[in-house]
Design a protein that fits this description.
CATH architecture of the largest domain: Alpha-Beta Barrel
Structural class: alpha/beta
CATH class of the largest domain: Alpha Beta
CATH superfamily of the largest domain: Alanine racemase
Strand content: 15-25%
Number of helices: 12
Bound molecules: pyridoxal-5'-phosphate
Length: 369
C-alpha cells in the first residue's frame, strides 16, 4: 500500500461495489437503481464514482444541481441523469447536456416547457415531484389536475417518472407517518398516471427506505448514503463498507513542558510534559472547530490521539504523549475501522455532514482493495 505523504481522502471502489451489490440484493430483479451522486458523490469523487457505477449497470443518476450534471456529462457519463433541484436560470444548460429536470412547481414546469419549445424538443424527459409530507420540494397533492393539464398542452415534454421523498425513513418511531406518506404516494402516483394516460416510473425510497420499507420500492429506488458506506443506524451500517478514508501524516512533533500552551488562544495548557503532533488538516479541509478541545481524535495505529486546543485553518495538534510515533507517520481521521458516523456523533452531527464537508483541497486517491 502506498504510504500517504500528505492529507488525502482515499476512495475504495471495491467497497463501492460491495455497497451497490448489497443494496441491489434488497431489491426485486426488475426494480431500477438510481444512484445519488450529488455534492461530489457525498464528498468523494462524483466522476470516478459515477463511472464505476455506470460500469456496474446502474440505471440512473441523480444530482442536486445542473452544474453537477454538466460535470458528469463532460467526463463522459452516458447514463440518464435526474437533476433534483434545478434552478430556473440553468434550465437551458440541462437541455444542452441531456439532463432531466425534476419539476416541482408550476413556475418551473412552465419555464422548462418554454425552454424545451425554444430548443425544438419533443418528448423531452422530465420528472414530476410531489410533496407527501417532507414539505421541502414538490407539487401539492391537489395540484395534480393542474399539472396534468399543463403537461397535456405541450408535446415538448414527456414525463419519465413521478416521485416523492420520505421524511423519516430511518426512524422507526415515525413508522405511522412514513406509512401515511407511502399510502399517499401510492394513490397520488396512480391517479397521476391515470390522468396522464401513459406509464411512468414510480420512485419514493432513499437508502433507509430501501432497507426499512421493502413494500415501497415501486419501480425504482434512489440510494445515496448506503453506496458510500453508511446507514442511518448501527444496524443498517453494519452491512455497508465506508468507501472513504481520510488520512494524513504527522508533520512535526513537539515536546511540550508541563504548563506550556499549544495553539491559538493558548487553548490547551499541558498538565504534564507532553508529546504533541501537528497534522496538516484543519477547518478549511472540513474538520470543523467543534472537533477541538479533545472532542475529536485521530487514530495512529490502534491508538487514539485527541485533538488539543483549537482546530486551525490548515492544521490540528494532537496529543501523542503515550503513543509511539514519529514525524511522517500516517494518521486516520475516519475510515472503515473508524467510522465517520462516530466522529460525526461526537460533534452532534451525522455522517452525511462530515463526509460531504471534506473540501476539494484534499486530494482524492482512488484505490481498489
Ligand atoms: C439526497 C436524496 C436522496 C438520497 O438519500 P440517502 O438517504 O442518501 O440514500 C434520495 N432522494 C432525494 C430526493 C434526495 O434529495
Amino acid at each position: 500500500m502506498p504510504k500517504v505523504t500528505e492529507t488525502a481522502l482515499e476512495i475504495n471502489l471495491a467497497s463501492l461495489k460491495h455497497n451497490f451489490k448489497f443494496l441491489k440484493s434488497k431489491l426485486k430483479d426488475k426494480t431500477l437503481f438510481l444512484a445519488v451522486v450529488k455534492a461530489f458523490a457525498y464528498g468523494s469523487d462524483a466522476v470516478v464514482v459515477a463511472k464505476c457505477l455506470q460500469e456496474l449497470g446502474v440505471d440512473y443518476f441523480a444530482v442536486a444541481y445542473v452544474s453537477e450534471g454538466v460535470a458528469l456529462r463532460k467526463a463522459g457519463v452516458k447514463t440518464p441523469i435526474l437533476v433534483l433541484h434545478p434552478q430556473e436560470k440553468n434550465l437551458k444548460h440541462a437541455i444542452e447536456h441531456c439532463l432531466e429536470p425534476s419539476l416541482y412547481t408550476l413556475k418551473i414546469l412552465q419555464a422548462f416547457e418554454r425552454i424545451a419549445q425554444q430548443h425544438n424538443q419533443k418528448n423531452y424527459p422530465v420528472h414530476i415531484k410531489f410533496n407527501t409530507g417532507l414539505n421541502r420540494l414538490g407539487f401539492e397533492p391537489n395540484d395534480l389536475e393542474v399539472v396534468v393539464k399543463e403537461l397535456s398542452k405541450t408535446c415538448a415534454l414527456k414525463v419519465k417518472s413521478v416521485f416523492s421523498h420520505l421524511a423519516a425513513s430511518e426512524d422507526l418511531e415515525e413508522k405511522p407517518f412514513t406509512l401515511e406518506q407511502i399510502n399517499l404516494y401510492k394513490s397520488l402516483s396512480s391517479s397521476f398516471i391515470d390522468a396522464l394516460g401513459y406509464p411512468v416510473i414510480k420512485h419514493l425510497c432513499n437508502t433507509s427506505g430501501v432497507l426499512n420499507y421493502p413494500e415501497a420500492h415501486f419501480d425504482m429506488v434512489r440510494c445515496g448514503i448506503g453506496l458510500y458506506g453508511y446507514g442511518n443506524s448501527d444496524k443498517e451500517s453494519k452491512n455497508f463498507q465506508p468507501i472513504a478514508t481520510l488520512k494524513s501524516v504527522i508533520s512535526q512533533i513537539h515536546l511540550v513542558k508541563k504548563g506550556e500552551s499549544v495553539g491559538y488562544n493558548r487553548a490547551f495548557i499541558s498538565s504534564e510534559d507532553s508529546k504533541i503532533a501537528t497534522i496538516p488538516i484543519g477547518h478549511a479541509d472540513g474538520i470543523g472547530r467543534h472537533f477541538g478541545y479533545g472532542v475529536g481524535a485521530v487514530s495512529i495505529g490502534l491508538e487514539k490521539a485527541p485533538i488539543v486546543g483549537n482546530v486551525c485553518m490548515d492544521m490540528i495538534m494532537v496529543n501523542v504523549t503515550s503513543i509511539e510515533c514519529e514525524e511522517g507517520d500516517e494518521v486516520i481521521f475516519f475510515g472503515p475501522e473508524y467510522s465517520a458516523e462516530t466522529s460525526a456523533a461526537a460533534v452532534s452531527t451525522i455522517s452525511y455532514e462530515l463526509i460531504t464537508g471534506i473540501s476539494q483541497r484534499v486530494k482524492r486517491q482512488i484505490v481498489y482493495k
